[in-house]
Amino acid sequence: MNTEAYFFLIDKKRREGLTPDEQRQLESWLQASEQNRATAADIGALLDATAPLVPEVNVPAELAAFKKRLHADEAPTLTVVHRNPRRWMWAAAGIFAILVCAVWMLRPDAEPEATWLQVATAVENDRRVDLPDGTVVWLNHHSKLEYRDGFTNFRERRVRLTGEAYFEVQKNTGKSFIVEAPGVTTTVLGTAFNVDAYEGQAYNTVTVREGRVRVEGMGKKAELTAGEKADVSIEMGSMEVSETNTDAVAEWRKPGLTFRDVQLGALVLQLSDRFGRQIRLEDGAMANCRYTAHFPKADLDAVLANLESVFGLKADTSEAGVVRLRGGQCSQQ
After folding, report:
1. Other residues' Cβ atoms within 10 Å of the Cβ of residue 222
2. How far apart are CA 238 and CA 203, in angstroms?
3. What is the CATH number of domain 116-248?
4. pTM reported for the whole predicted model
C-alpha cells in the first residue's frame, strides 16, 4: 500500500473506525519505522486543520428523518437541487492533493523510492563491505546486506540484513544508521555492534560492543549500551535484554573457529550453518554439555575429530550431506 492508502485509513479511523483487517494493516505500517509514525502524525494534524472545510453528516439521523417524512399524512414537498458531480469529484481530489503535498512539504525526510544494492556471501565465506559513508560491515557466511543507491544522499542511512553482520558505524549525528532485520530494527548514531538474524533461528540477537543502540522488535523497544544484548523471538513475540561478555562478539570475522563455553546443542546448529551440512546430535542428553576450543582454520573434520576425543562421540558421515554424532558423555575439559 502507498501513502495515499494509509491517508484514507487514518481518515476513516477518525471518522467511523476500521475493520480488524484494516486496523492490522495500519498498525503494521506504523510499527515499520519512525518515519511512518511521523507521517501519520502530520496527516492527523492536517485533518484537524481542514476539518471545518468538510462538514460532518449524521447519516443515520438524516435517514430516519427522511423515513419519517415519507410516512407523514401529507406528502412531502421535494426540492430537487441539481449539482454537477464532476465539480465535487474535482473538489475532493483537489483537497486530497493539497493535503498530500502539505504532508510532503512539512516532512523534509520524506524520500522517494530508491534502487537497493545487494551484497551476499556464500555458505562458507565471509566478506568485508565498505559503505559509502565510511561504515565498515563484516558480513558473515550465508548472509545478505542491502543498501540504497546514493546511500549518503538520504536523511537516514538505512540497510537491510538477513543473516549475521558486525558493524563499525561511522559517526554522523545528523544521520541515524538503521539496520532492518527479520523481526528487529536497530538504530544508532555511531557504534560497534553485531546483528545475528539468520532466517529460521529461534532468536535474533543484537549485541553491542561499543556505544549505544536502540532496538525495536515485536512491539517493544530497548536501549542497549556496551556489554548488553537483546534476544528477539519472532515466534514468541518477545524481547529479552541481558548483559553479555563481548570478547567473543563477531569472532567469526577472524580466521579459524573459536568456541567459548558453548553448549553442544547450540554448537551443532552453528556448525550446520557454517558448513552447509546437517549436523545432528543423536543423544539429546548431550545437548547441555559445554565445549571450549579454538581451531586456526575453519576445518569441520578437525572439529569433529576433537569432539570425538573430548566427549567420546562417534561422527557418522555415511549419509551425504549429513553428520550424525552418536553416543558420548559430558566430560571436564
Report:
1. 16
2. 9
3. 2.60.120.1440
4. 0.55
Domain ranges of the chain: 3-106, 116-248, 255-327
d(Cα 198, Cα 241) in Å, to the nearest integer?
A: 19
Residue 29, classed as helix, strand or coil, is: helix
Q: From 184, 142, 145, select the one nearest 271 (Cα to Cα).
A: 142
Nearest alpha-carbon partner for 3 in 102, 76, 129: 102
Classified as helix, coil or strand, 215 is: strand
User: Which residue, among 305, 303, 294, 308, has the nearest Cα to 257 in the 3D structure?
Assistant: 294
Exposure class string for 193-210: b at 16+ Cβ within 10 A, else e: bbbbbbeeeebbbbbbbe
Longest dimension (CA), the chain: 103
Q: Distance between CA atoms of 75 and 98, rounded to whole angstroms?
A: 44
Confidence of residue 27 (pLDDT cuts 50, 70, 90): confident
Q: Is residue 71 over pLDDT 70?
A: no
Strands (E), the chain: 116-120, 127-130, 136-139, 144-148, 157-168, 177-181, 184-188, 192-197, 204-210, 212-217, 220-225, 228-233, 238-243, 257-263, 278-281, 290-295, 313-316, 322-327
For 214-246, write each residue's pLDDT tens digit. 999 988 999 999 999 999 998 888 999 999 888
Cβ neighbors of 43 (< 8 A, separation 6 or more) are: 6, 7, 10, 11, 99, 103
CB atoms within 10 A of CB 289: 22
Domain 255-327 has CATH 3.10.20.600: no
Q: What is the DSSP letter of 53?
A: G
Work out whether the CA dihedral 46, 48, 53, 57 comes out positive or negative. positive
